């Protein structure tokens, strides 16, 4: 039995805050504690109370920093880690010029394993403890992805892409081989440890109707698996999809007609939507995923978070590495804030941090496991330092509330603001040595003025 007691300023969400005054939506403790046993949070509360009942459990003191649930990224491309910051193209050109050639390299077991280690290092150094990833078309890439997730005991979701047309020869499967490889991967990885498999038709342009039918069969045979794909990111993409599927009512109908919409469906981008598509999203419970840095980088458009939310649609938020320009969910929230500002919607910092934690967990249906610090949840934790750069420290001298501190982290923070990360209760990034029982360092608590 492994036990650990973490001390620090503590923030956890219970539901989405409607504004800065909605204090019932979250718990904030200036001197809080998390009692962890065998990777699970056993108790949460004021340090004086929790430590009294913890006996001689080793204490790690993170004061004056802020502890919260690890960040969750709901749309990321594992094979694109070396094409981030590739200059000058919109979606379809960017895929053909950069992404597809890069992904052919993932046919190699050795390359896939090497990139998996680098990919997870980047996620954790930026405070992300769970992600939903697209692997390449190659079974080797998904095996490497899940092997590394298992080694690090991370809760990760992902799947090999299904794509049988409109890509280089080295990136094509067939309807049957895509089905067979996916069945094997689900058997080998889904529900093993903390892994979850995601059925992944890349997007309508790269899948024939025959392959979409195979994706439908996979979804029917494995209803506990998530489904992910792309939707309405770019106007040229939409027009090309209409040519390839002339009988579809609209882009979303391609997926809907094959039974791929439901509460476990994640639809990357979802920018240029028709009224019927919005109705279908609301009816089926499928989840659009907002990818702000990618949408800006490729000039794709502005995601209508306010309009979709008003229809009761739950949206994820994600980095979309590698068209996305940062692994940091802090920087993702930064750019998301700006996109919503252009549409007259001011994203409150408490809403932003809820979105990157409990909000994304709810989108995945995993709120009972991750995204918050409630007893019984998995101990994936990030510790944030709002004074991690000189510019941030200068700004923090004038901060007078928790919301202001969160906004500094959101707008100015990046991997330098990640003070420590715990995965399933184990130190992963930047964690100091624990001290026995009550012998904690006398570190003053930083209370926003």
Task: Please summarize what this structure is.
The chain is 37% helix and 22% strand. It is an alpha/beta fold. Helix 4 (139-152) links the parallel strand 6 (128-134) and strand 7 (156-159).
What do these coordinates show?
By secondary structure, the chain is of the alpha/beta class. The strands form two sheets. Strands 5, 6, 7, 8, 9, 10, 11, 12 and 13 form a nine-stranded parallel sheet that branches. Helix 4 packs parallel to helix 5 and helix 13 packs across helix 15. The longest helix has 17 residues. It is globular. The two termini are 40 Å apart.
Q: Helix segment count?
A: 15
Q: Overall mean pLDDT score?
A: 94
Please state the overall shape, judged from the principal axes of the Cα atoms: globular
Q: Specify Rg, calculated over alpha carbons.
A: 22 Å
- The low-confidence runs, each spanning 5 or more residues with pLDDT under 50, are 437-449
Helix content bin: 25-40%
Q: Please report which band the strand proportion falls in: under 5%, 5-15%, 15-25%, 25-35%, 35-45% or over 45%.
A: 15-25%
Give the total of beta strands.
16
Q: What structural category arises from helix and sheet content?
A: alpha/beta
Largest beta-sheet characterization: 9 strands, parallel
Q: How far apart, in Å, are the first and last alpha carbons?
A: 40 Å
């Amino acid at each position: 039995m492994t036990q650990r007691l973490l001390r620090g300023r503590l923030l956890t969400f219970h539901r989405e805050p409607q504004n800065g005054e909605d204090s019932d939506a979250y718990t904030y403790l200036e001197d809080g504690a998390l009692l962890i046993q065998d990777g699970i949070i056993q108790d949460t509360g004021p340090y004086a109370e929790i430590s009294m009942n913890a006996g001689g459990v080793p204490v790690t003191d993170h004061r004056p920093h802020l502890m919260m649930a690890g960040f969750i990224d709901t749309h990321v491309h594992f094979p694109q880690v070396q094409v981030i910051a590739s200059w000058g193209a919109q979606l379809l050109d960017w895929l053909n010029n950069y992404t597809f050639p890069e992904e052919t390299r993932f046919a190699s077991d050795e390359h896939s394993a090497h990139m998996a280690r680098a990919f997870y290092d980047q996620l954790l150094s930026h405070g992300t403890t769970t992600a939903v990833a697209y692997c390449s078309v190659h079974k080797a890439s998904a095996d490497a992805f899940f092997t590394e997730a298992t080694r690090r005991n991370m809760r990760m979701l992902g799947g090999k892409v299904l794509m049988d047309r409109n890509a280089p020869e080295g990136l094509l499967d067939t309807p049957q081989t895509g089905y067979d490889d996916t069945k094997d991967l689900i058997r080998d990885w889904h529900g093993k440890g903390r892994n979850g498999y995601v059925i992944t038709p890349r997007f309508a342009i790269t899948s024939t109707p025959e392959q979409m039918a195979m994706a439908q069969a996979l979804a029917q045979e494995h209803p506990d698996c998530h489904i992910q794909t792309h939707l309405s990111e770019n106007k040229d993409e939409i027009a090309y999809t209409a040519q390839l599927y002339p009988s579809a009512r609209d882009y979303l109908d391609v997926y809907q007609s094959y039974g791929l919409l439901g509460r476990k469906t994640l639809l990357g981008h979802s920018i240029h939507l028709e009224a019927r598509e919005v109705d279908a999203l609301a009816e089926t419970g499928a989840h659009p995923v907002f990818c702000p840095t990618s949408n800006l980088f490729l000039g794709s458009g502005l995601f209508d978070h306010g309009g979709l939310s008003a229809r009761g649609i739950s949206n994820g938020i994600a980095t979309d590495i590698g068209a996305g320009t940062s692994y940091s969910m802090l920087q993702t929230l930064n750019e998301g804030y700006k996109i919503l500002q252009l549409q007259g919607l001011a994203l409150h910092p408490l809403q932003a941090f809820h979105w990157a934690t409990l909000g994304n967990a709810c989108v995945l249906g995993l709120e009972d496991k991750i995204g918050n610090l409630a007893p019984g949840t998995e101990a994936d934790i990030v510790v944030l330092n709002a004074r991690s750069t000189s510019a941030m420290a200068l700004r923090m001298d004038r901060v007078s509330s928790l919301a202001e501190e969160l906004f500094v982290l959101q707008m100015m923070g990046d991997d330098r603001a990640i003070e420590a990360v715990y995965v399933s209760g184990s130190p992963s990034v930047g964690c100091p040595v624990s001290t026995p029982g009550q012998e904690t360092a006398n570190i003053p608590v930083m209370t926003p003025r």
